[in-house]
Write a structure and sequence with these properties.
Blueprint lengths: L1 H11 L5 H10 L4 H34 L7 H13 L1 H9 L5 H9 L4 H43 L12
Helix pairs in contact: 1-3, 2-7, 3-6, 3-7, 4-5, 4-6, 5-7
Protein name: DedA family protein
Keywords: Membrane, Transmembrane, Transmembrane helix
Organism: Cupriavidus malaysiensis
């Protein structure tokens, strides 16, 4: 399920996957490795779909659909990294909080191997989501203790329905 949600989130190009991974791991900390792997595969598969779409659209049609791409300072920066470093930049961008869409556009127009692009994205996402999942798994127990304590203190301060606070 996490893989499917990561696929849809990545394909939408507007929903971050890291909070999804964090929430999933907080629900099941023992499965943090599997959850990170599923999210990375789902996100990598969606990135491959985007790569193929961008490749078939071409530069002119793509700019017609997304004219703001070339006006963004971040776009220019990511495009420069991708042009200079190729797939290595794609791995680094996939592992970072930077948006990967501009890099995918650039590598799609550079006609790199789809398998190499998938491997690069998968490697970066495995690193990113692996760290996120590991941190969430380590934070779960202390957070769970805090939540139980909050719920217990809230339960003591509850007033049963229909009763007044004062006895007068």
């Amino acid at each position: 399920m996490v893989g499917g949600l990561a696929f849809v989130a990545t394909l939408s190009m507007c929903v971050p996957v890291a909070p999804l991974v964090t929430a999933s791991v907080l629900l099941s900390a023992r499965r943090w490795k599997a959850l990170a792997l599923c999210a990375a595969v789902g996100s990598g598969a969606a990135a491959l779909v985007l790569y193929v779409v961008f490749h078939h659209l071409g530069w002119e049609k793509l700019l017609g659909y997304l004219p703001e791409l070339t006006r963004s300072a971040r776009w220019v920066q990511i495009a420069a990294y991708t042009e200079d470093y190729g797939l290595l930049a794609l791995v680094a961008i996939a592992a970072s909080p930077l948006p990967q869409t501009p890099a995918l556009v650039f590598v799609a127009l550079a006609e790199l191997s789809p398998l190499a692009v998938f491997g690069s994205i998968l490697g970066g996402k495995l690193a990113k989501y692996g760290v996120v999942a590991w941190l969430a798994a380590r934070a779960r127990d202390p957070l769970q203790g805090e939540i139980v304590e909050m719920m217990t203190s809230m339960g003591r301060n509850k007033v049963p329905h229909g009763r007044r606070h004062d006895s007068t």
